[in-house]
Each structure stands twice: as structure tokens, then as C-alpha cells.
Amino acid sequence: MGWDNKETILAAQKTAKETEEQVQNWNRQIRQSKIDRNALQTKRDTLTRLLNFDNFAEIDWKTSNKTVLDLKSQKENLSKSSNQLQTLQQQLATVKQDIDARERERERYVSDKTRLESRLEMYVEQIRLSEEFLSTTQQPTQNWESFRPKIEPLFEGKEPQISNIAALETKVAKQIADTKEQKQKEVAQLERRLTLDMQKFINPTPEILGKYPNWSADVLNLKADMDYLNEFEDFYKKLSEEDLPKHQKRFKEWLNERLILILSNFKTILGK
User: What contacts 263, CB < 8 A, 6 or more positions away?
Assistant: First the structure.
């Protein structure tokens, strides 16, 4: 991409130079046309004065007759020259229009050149920052290969380039934020459920208390709070490792269905 921009800039510079040379050539033609026009106007004025001359006594008729013939010839030539002048003036107007168009085109090339140079500087800076980031990242190739399958769908079939990295960054950031928000909602919901089950575990039904008179004493140090999650796990391990009587099977099933399932789900969500 950088080479394409440089070639475009060089082409624009070449075109601008050719345009300036053509403009200079047209300006020289315009100046010469003005000189020719002034000479023709001078001849026309001279011929007009001669035609208006009325002191015939002083005229050498032979010489004057020849002069008149010459002047008539000059008049015809002048008329032709006048037509040529008109043609030149029309050509001059066309040339001026062409010059104006070329000037606008040159200004557009200059504007494009400035814009391309600005984009080139931006891309060079982005490349420098990317190289700096890669040089400070441990194992960049391995990290990229593991992360690439996750972000490739975000390109929507487009080839990753510096020009679309910024848009990709915005899209990835939004996706991460949305995912994070969703996971936070799931964690909060699970925490509420887990806290409620903790409370039920600490304060079971009268039926459970009737079967296990020491229940309240055993759970005295437990609280329905996420900070006590490890204590609940330790308490469960203790119960699991003991040789409980057969009539406690119902209680263990209740633990498996409630507490362990919720703890497992909670850890799974936290691990995502």
C-alpha cells in the first residue's frame, strides 16, 4: 500500500509539471498574439487616415494610384488578418478555458498528493507502533495463531489491513464489552441463587433439623455470603468423606442436586 501511494504521488507530480509547461507555452502564444494584433491595428489606423485624405492637389496621382492599389491590397490582407485575429482571439479564449481546467486539475492533484502524503504518514506511524508492540510481546506468532480464529469472523471476509484495524478494534472492544456485561449478569444471577441456597443450607427445614440435632452447631461458622464459598466446599468434603448411615442418602442427594451443581456452574462461568 505504501508503494502504491508513492507511485500515485509521483504520477501526480509528473502531471502537474507537464501542465505547468503547457501553460507557459500557451502564455507565450498569447503574448505573441497580442503583438500581432497591435501591429494589425496600427496598419488599420494608417490605412484609415490615408483613405480620409482630401488634399488631392498635393497628390502625385501616379504614385498615389500605386499607393492606393497597394493600400487596397493591404486592406484585403488586413481584412484577412482581422479574420485571423478573430480566429486567434477565439483560440485564445479556448486556450484560457483549457488553462483554467488544467489549473483546477493541477490543484486537485496537489490536494490528492497532500491527502496521500498524510495517509502515508499515518500508515507509517501505525506500522511503527505495530512493530513496537510486536517487539515487546512474548511469542507474538503463537499468540496470534491462537487468537486469530476468534477475530477472523469479525473481518466479514475482508483482508486484514492497517486501514481497517481501527474499525476492527472498535468492533472487538464492543463485543468484549457485551460479552463481559452478559457474563456479569449471569454471575450476579448465580450469586443470588447461590446465596439463597447457602441460606437454606444454614437454616434447613425442621425435618432436617429433626434428623440432625447438631446441624446448627456444625454450620455455626458459615454465613450466606460469597466470601464463605471455600468454607462451604470444605464442609461438603468433610460430609462426603464421612461414613454416613444409609438413612442419610436422601440428604446427600439433596446436596448433590443443589449445592454442588450451583458451585460447579459458578466456577464454570468464572472460568470463561
Answer: 194, 229, 232, 233
Of 51-60, 165-174, 182-191, 244-253, least confident by mean pLDDT is: 244-253
Residues 194 and 269: their CA atoms lie apart, in Å, by: 13
Three-state DSSP class for residue 221: coil
Tens digits of residue pLDDT in 130-166: 667 666 655 555 555 666 666 666 666 666 666 666 6
Helices then strands (H, E): number in the chain? 9, 0
Side-chain-facing half-sphere of 214: CA atoms under 13 Å: 1
What is the residue type of 217? A
**How is the chain split among helix, strand and coil, in percent rounded to 5?**
90, 0, 10
Closest Cα to residue 94, out of 147, 30, 21? 30
Q: What integer pLDDT is reported at residue 2 of this predicted model? A: 46
Q: Euclidean distance between the first and final Cα of the chain, in Å?
A: 39
